[in-house]
Amino acid sequence: LNRMPPYVILRNLARSVSGREVPNQLQPALIMTDPGTEVLGFIVEEHSGGKFTVFMPLAPTPGVGTIQVVSSNKIQRLEAPMKDALGAILNWGAGTEALLKTRNSLSQ
User: Fold this and answer.
1) Mean pLDDT of residues grouped by 10 in the chain (108 residues)?
2) Cα(62)–Cα(67) distance, rounded to whole angstroms?
3) φ, ψ for residue 52 (rounded to 5)?
4) By C-alpha distance, which of 23, 94, 37, 19 is closest to 60?
5) Are 12 and 22 a contacting pair, CB within 8 Å?
6) Would you give the DSSP letter of residue 64?
7) Theoretical Cys-Cys bridge with 79: which of 54, 91, 92, 102, CB 3.0 to 4.6 Å?
């Protein structure tokens, strides 16, 4: 099962929710989709050309969502525990205000 990306993502999400450290886990982030609109998502990987693959989960089911490739100027890392970001998604956005206080812009 470890060769199947969806399994690995869901396994790591479950470990993160339980408070266990997960190496190479997804990084919580805000992704700008339109001017004035940001979506809570997760950085999956950073590309050498300055773009990122991100996973944008659907609330309240964080195991379902879309994968997008976005420029670094559209991303703000959230220096928050994965369990807090997942908690906000599972609770239809409740707790997002605390996450926003941990923003770290990647724009250059």
Assistant:
1) 68 72 76 91 90 90 88 92 83 87 63
2) 12
3) -130, 145
4) 94
5) yes
6) E
7) 102
By DSSP bridging, strand 37-46 and strand 75-78 are unpaired
pTM of the model: 0.73
Residue 85's contacts (CB-CB under 8 Å, 6 or more residues apart) are 28, 40, 42, 78, 99
- CA 68 vs. chain centroid, Å, equals 12
Lookup: tokens for 92: 């239809």
CA distance 68 to 79: 21
Cα–Cα distance measured from residue 55 to residue 66, given in angstroms and rounded to the nearest whole number: 6
Q: Which residue has the tokens 């998604």?
A: 89
